[in-house]
Design a protein that fits this description.
Residues 110-119, 813-833, 898-914 have a biased composition (Low complexity). One of its GO terms (biological process) is protein deubiquitination. This protein is an alpha+beta fold. 22% of the residues lie in helices and 24% in strands. Strands 9, 14, 17, 18, 19, 20, 21 and 22 form an eight-stranded mixed β-sheet that branches. A hairpin with a 6-residue loop joins strand 19 and strand 20.
């Protein structure tokens, strides 16, 4: 009695909830340890529990309060209780921090230190094998403590595993259990498939039959289940859906019954698995009993009754609770038909008949209505090897008398069970036991024979184990073979022997002190489904041996054996097949790519014939004009040819059969009159481009092969032979990489020393001109090659013609056409290669038409710019007013991009050396005696020789740069860079609106805009440039001093009319903040703020825009501007704040505009603006947002202001900080217990609040107000409403269960396509 009273006192004792943050290392700082201890626990015991849970040695760390600044550690040896040490009981959260002791990190406890663990935690328990990359089995389930007694090969166990398709471990476990059930396997073998009646692909029994035959006769380690799942009507996506094994069992049995109708196996499932029970209600006054008979396929056993603190310890105890009646009294009284009134009654279940194969489902998956999460109960529940069901069976007659004796009542039952839906009695739409609730069609009631008391002993033969949590996990099966009595673990493709000890370790249970729902997110391994077989020698069957198979099964075995042999032969062929990439320059289809698969014993001649057919060259090129050569596709390098090796096997030529090769093959072709050139190992390939300085053209490449040890003189002679040029006057320029041109002029230097590699590109020029006499970097050749390597092709979309721009644009273009005449378009890029084959020089003689037109363009442009700058141009005397309408339409056009806050041009490195190209260039005289390394052309350094590098300053970085230098001179004049525009297509009617622009990518945005001016028809200050990306998203380019180096060929640019930014200006997107609206962030306008402008000045400029574009008539003192970070409102900007001095500003900046209902109370930066919202638990509602202005970061001041505003007494007021992004939405079902209410801090700017800036969200409540009592229906209805509300606002619904696809087996071969479904 004393022991019982101690237990009762312990149960009634208040408990202390401790939350410990481990701040000893960066890896653990985000982790929280939770302990729920009796209030009488001493501090020394607290240290022991924390050490045990954290895995540390006890005396090597300190615990301190987490919400006090002094961080004084708690006493290690104190015997003072937690309640006397300042801990708050009753569900209050006590925050502690685990810190270093004496400056040293805690010591990790070794295995031997874990003496406090119970025996079960010390033992090795079985579990899933760690599988490389296997889906559905996370790291939680492959703990080192989980291992098998032994890992045996198939030759030792004799059993075949099943391959996990992705997350089909639940299916594999059930299939192996059915296969190891003699009665089911034998009955399935006796069924004969009629191919004339059904498609074998969609026949579930036939595919199961095939699978069982393979499991019994295959020599493989594991076999696939794809044919079975295909017969279910599943596609590949089903393999990634994890379901409940008990749910699958029900659905599969139902599908088999449907398929087996009107066959001998029609009643097989019922004969083997169906039992019968009575669901009754008995009046306690007159004895009248109302009842009905139901059938069942499995019995669901509750692990832990709802609301109870103790779990049932064994299957026998859970079975007893299953049949215990409950008393219906009080408001739950039963209306008795005999008494004609409501009476007390007893309601319960009686097991009338037991199936031959008894299936018990341990209901480990539950739902926690406090946290709104699915949880898994990992409590220990033992189960016997032999189960005596005689105490639980009622062998009375089916027709019950009107009065009968009733068994003891009192134990709480979960509810009655009807038909085949017993295990789903807890299921709802929102929470289910790992799977989806199914509507069974119900099987026909069948009354089996009544068992005698001597035949009620059942033998355990299958345990289906779940390892993981309610969020997911892994299934495997432990099954006893009736052939040798040995237990085996069937874990997907792994099959191994296990012992009885391993079975006992699946009983469950976990070490340490755990609360009721501590297992919600814990991972554990325990039994989930048990299958017993009745011990009846007259019925117990053995597995059919191969010689006893029916004839149709013998035929199937032979068929599968032949198929397996064929598959084996095919695998052998695959292992001896070389698979290599094959390329071919097809005479019609250009470069083609394919894969050549050739047996290693095939000769080169046979492989060439195969490649010839593969590349479809028949009728175009004769086979004699083709050969295979070794090829490097990355470097476009022909490594070697195979002369005289036509009869050599491919395996020898390719170096064996490999999964991948470091080289490729090229099917080379020639004309009949040509001969193949031999390619020898060690040679390098050189693409030679001939440059003609007179016509300023660069010819298509000629391929030349050379040796790395050749000298430059020998190399020139080789080129001379190939091109017919004179080697005496030849200049050779090697392009090693982008912007690296090297003149090869040292005669005796080798190609290797000059940096030649496998594949190289050189430019050669041989003429009698004097250009070779000047320094290379000052020569026409260098300038031509320099422009060739830097010119890109852009597609420019011009704005729509408008009355204000048409005249200007037409004038500019007419002038240009008059100056250009009929200029040839000679700067087209070859569509086959990335090289310019015909380009122009900007510094050639005056007789070049293209040079004349470009120079005329520049002169015209300079005159117009000077006129505009001097104010003498009448056409644009008032550009600001002239383009007011265009600027407005531009902001409207860009509304769809209002959420974009990133300018990709700014993301590119503004300090890249490629941007340093706007300085004056001066000639560099080369010193005598320097080798070619010294005169390597760095185009960037050449462009800036003689001028200080123009790195962007901090001032320039903060905004855009002026298009003009300090003297008012156009920066484009400083250095001319190539620019030429032409219509996109001669036949395109929209060619006026689209231009194909060839431009040097080192040109700045400012110079580019000036060059585009004649085509837009307005000055560069009156239009904006937008870069278009692959998804058609546009970002404005605003940094005028940056180059186009981040652009590449065929990039798109859109020109839009509107005022361009000046130096120090920023484009700003303004959003309205509506704190109490469903969508609190509404885009208003695009505007411009300038550096040095005050907030009040920006408001003065903004308000007329709002009135004109948004029809918002606001006064300047009724609005405020504040920082916007994503959707979060931040710092309030005061009127006297200055941009760039007090407020940091950047391109594409975003701000909130907030309309005030009362005069502005924020006067100083020391104040703090907090958004507060009252939670009313009695009404289950949240009030509107109200702003509170604090003079300091004091918690006391916040509570006083909230108390004054809400009339809640100060001592009853509790507050909590909102979580996530504004408006910090949270379900009303979660807010009362999920937030950290009333944190023990004195200031707002410390952990766990960290409220340091305006805009933080704070919830508050009256602690004396109790939450509304909700019925189950009301709670479910409210849950659905909250789910819908939070999903609409884009906030996560944390209580929503994992969305799962319903488990269905389709008898017609596949699901019907729903046109509405995505």
């Amino acid at each position: 009695m004393k022991r019982i009273s101690q237990i009762q006192n312990a149960a009634e004792e208040p408990r202390v909830l401790c939350i410990i943050q481990d701040i000893t290392s960066a890896k653990t700082v985000n982790e929280r340890l939770t302990l729920n201890l009796p209030a009488s626990t001493t501090l020394s015991k607290l240290y022991e529990d924390v050490a045990h849970k954290a895995g540390y040695v006890k005396a090597t760390f300190d615990l301190a309060w987490g919400n006090t600044p002094d961080m004084v550690p708690l006493d290690h040896s104190s015997e003072m209780s937690l309640s006397d040490s300042g801990f708050e009981p009753g569900g209050k959260r006590n925050f502690l921090q685990l810190t270093d002791k004496d400056g040293e990190q805690p010591q990790i406890a070794s295995v031997s230190d874990s003496s406090g663990l119970d025996d079960s935690s010390q033992e090795r328990i079985i579990g899933p094998l760690p599988r490389d990359g296997a889906a559905g089995c996370s790291g939680d389930y492959s703990s080192p403590s989980y291992s098998y007694s032994s890992i045996l090969n198939k030759s030792d166990t004799g059993y075949v595993g099943l391959v996990n398709q992705a997350m089909t471990c639940y299916l594999n476990s059930l299939l192996q259990t059915l296969f190891m059930t003699p009665e089911f396997r034998n009955a399935l073998y006796n069924w004969e498939f009629e191919e004339t009646e059904e498609d074998p692909v969609t026949s579930i029994p036939y595919q199961l039959q095939r699978l069982f035959v393979l499991l019994q006769t295959s020599k493989k380690r594991a076999i696939e289940t794809t044919d079975v799942t295909r017969s279910f009507g599943w596609d590949s996506s089903e393999a990634w859906q994890q379901h409940d094994v008990q749910e699958l069992c029900r659905v599969m049995f139902d599908a088999l019954e449907q398929k087996w109708k009107q066959t001998e196996q029609a009643d097989l499932i019922n004969q083997l698995y169906q039992g019968k029970l009575k669901d009754y209600v008995r009046c306690l006054e007159c004895g009248y009993e109302s009842w009905r008979i139901d059938t069942y396929l499995d019995i669901p056993l509750v692990i832990r009754p709802f609301g109870a603190s103790q779990a049932y310890g064994s299957v026998e105890e859970a079975l007893q609770a299953f049949i215990q009646p409950e008393t219906l009294d009080g408001p739950n009284q039963y209306f008795c038909e005999r008494c004609k009134k409501k009476c007390d009654a007893r309601k319960g279940l009686r097991l009338l008949h037991l199936p031959y194969l008894l299936t018990l489902q341990l209901k480990r998956f539950d739902f926690d209505y406090t946290t709104m999460h699915r949880i898994k109960l990992n409590d220990r529940m033992t189960f016997p090897d032999e189960l005596d069901m005689s105490p639980f069976i009622d062998v009375e007659d089916e027709k019950s008398p009107q009065t009968e004796s009733c068994t003891d009542s009192g134990a709480e039952n979960e509810g009655s069970c009807h038909s085949d839906q017993m295990s789903n009695d807890f299921s709802t739409d929102d929470c289910v036991d790992e799977g989806i609730c199914l509507d069974s069609t119900g099987s026909t009631e069948r009354i089996s024979s009544v068992y005698s008391q001597s035949l009620l002993t059942f033998e355990l033969f299958s345990v289906m184990v779940h390892s993981g949590s309610a969020a997911g996990g892994h299934y495997y099966a432990c099954i006893k073979s009736y052939s040798d009595g040995q237990w085996y673990s069937f874990n997907d493709q792994h099959v191994s022997k296990i012992t009885q000890d391993d079975i006992r370790k699946t009983h469950g249970g976990s070490s340490g002190s755990r609360g009721y729902y501590s297992g919600a997110f814990a991972s554990s391994t325990n039994a989930y489904m048990l299958i017993y077989r009745l011990k009846d020698p007259s019925r117990n069957a053995k597995y059919l041996a191969a010689e006893d198979f029916p004839e149709h099964i013998k035929s199937l075995v032979q068929k599968e054996k032949e198929s397996e042999e064929q598959e084996k032969r095919q695998r052998e062929i695959e292992r001896n097949t070389c698979k290599i990439k094959l390329f071919c320059m097809h005479p019609v289809k250009m470069m083609m790519e394919s894969k050549l698969e050739v047996h290693k014993d095939k000769t080169l001649r046979e492989a060439t014939e195969m490649a010839y057919k593969l590349m479809e060259l028949e009728g175009l090129v004769s086979l004699d004009c083709c050969r295979l050569v070794k090829y490097d596709e990355f470097h476009e390098y022909l490594e070697r040819s195979y002369e005289g090796e036509e009869d050599t096997p491919m395996g020898l030529l390719l170096g064996g059969v490999k999964s991948s090769y470091m080289f490729d093959l090229l099917l080379e072709t020639r004309k009949p009159e040509q001969a193949f050139q031999p390619y020898k190992p060690g040679e390098v390939m050189v693409k030679v481009h001939v440059v003609d300085l007179k016509s300023e053209t660069i010819a298509s490449p000629i391929s030349v092969r050379a040796y790395l040890n050749q000298t430059i003189t020998e190399f020139k002679q080789l080129i001379a032979q190939a091109t017919g040029l004179s080697a005496e006057t030849m200049r050779v320029v090697l392009e090693r990489c982008y912007n690296d041109l090297r003149l090869l002029y040292v005669p005796n230097k080798t190609l290797k020393a000059e940096g030649f590699f496998r594949s190289n590109k050189v430019f050669v020029e041989s003429s009698e001109s004097t250009d070779h006499q000047v320094a290379f970097t000052d020569s026409v050749l260098w300038k031509l090659l320099d422009r060739h390597g830097n010119t890109i092709r852009l597609l420019v979309l011009l704005p729509e013609q408008s009355p204000g721009t048409l005249a200007n644009r037409t004038l500019c273009q007419n002038q240009q056409q008059q100056q250009q005449g009929s200029s040839p378009s000679d700067s087209q890029k070859s569509s086959e290669t990335s090289d310019f084959e015909h380009i122009e020089s900007p510094t050639q003689e005056a007789d070049s038409n293209s040079s004349l037109c470009v120079a005329a363009d520049n002169r015209e442009l300079e005159n117009r710019i000077r006129a505009t700058a001097g104010g003498s141009s009448s056409a644009s005397s008032d550009p600001e007013n002239h383009f007011a309408c265009e600027e407005r339409s531009d902001s409207e056009v860009n509304n769809d991009r209002s959420t974009s806050s990133v300018d990709s041009d700014i993301l590119s490195s503004s300090h890249s050396s490629d941007t340093l190209c706007n300085a004056d260039s001066g000639p560099i005289q080369l010193a005598n005696g320097l080798d070619s390394h010294s005169i390597t052309s760095s185009r960037r350094s050449k462009a800036h020789e003689g001028k200080k590098e123009t790195w962007d300053t901090a001032e320039e970085d903060s905004g855009t740069d002026s298009e003009y230098d300090d003297n008012g001179k156009s920066k484009a004049e400083a250095q001319y860079l190539y620019f030429r525009a032409e219509p996109c297509s001669q036949d395109d009617s929209s060619s006026e609106a689209q231009k194909l622009v060839h431009v040097d990518k080192r040109i700045t945005l400012a110079a580019f805009k000036q060059n585009v001016e004649p085509y837009v028809g307005v000055t560069s200050t009156q239009f904006k440039v937008f870069r278009v990306y692959a998804n058609n998203q546009e970002f404005e380019s605003v940094r005028l001093n940056e180059t186009l180096s981040s652009f590449s060929d065929d990039n798109k640019i859109t020109i839009r009319l509107g005022r361009a930014l000046k130096k120090g200006e920023y484009r700003v997107k303004v959003y309205q903040l509506l704190v109490n609206e469903p969508e609190p962030c509404k885009f208003l306008v695009d505007t411009v703020f300038a550096k040095g402008m005050t907030v009040r000045q920006s408001k003065e400029e903004l308000l007329p825009q709002l009135k004109e574009q948004c029809e918002l008539d606001l006064s300047i003192d009724s609005v405020r501007l504040r920082k916007k970070t994503w959707k979060n409102p931040g710092t309030v900007f005061l009127d006297y704040h200055v941009y760039e001095e007090d407020i940091s500003i950047s391109s594409n900046w975003e701000v909130f505009l907030e309309v005030l209902n009362e005069p502005e109370k924020m006067k100083s930066m020391s104040q703090l603006a907090v958004l507060t919202r009252r939670w009313r638990p009695a009404a289950m509602k949240l009030g509107p947002f109200q702003e509170v202005i604090l003079e300091s970061s004091s918690v006391e001041e916040l509570k006083e202001k909230l108390s004054e505003m809400s009339d809640v007494p100060l001592e009853n007021l509790e507050f909590a900080k909102g979580r996530g992004t504004f408006p910090c939405d949270i379900s009303v079902l979660e807010i009362h217990q999920d937030l950290d209410w009333n944190p023990k801090v004195s200031t707002l700017n410390v952990w766990p609040l960290y409220i340091c800036d305006d805009g933080a969200v704070v919830f508050y409540r009256d602690s004396t107000e109790e939450p509304m009592e909700l019925s189950e229906e009301e709670r479910n209805e409210l849950m659905k409403k909250e789910s819908s509300r939070l999903l609409k606002t884009g906030h996560r619904v944390s209580y929503s269960p994992r969305k799962e696809k319903a488990l269905k087996i389709y008898l017609d071969g596949g699901p019907a396509k729903d046109p509405v479904q995505d």
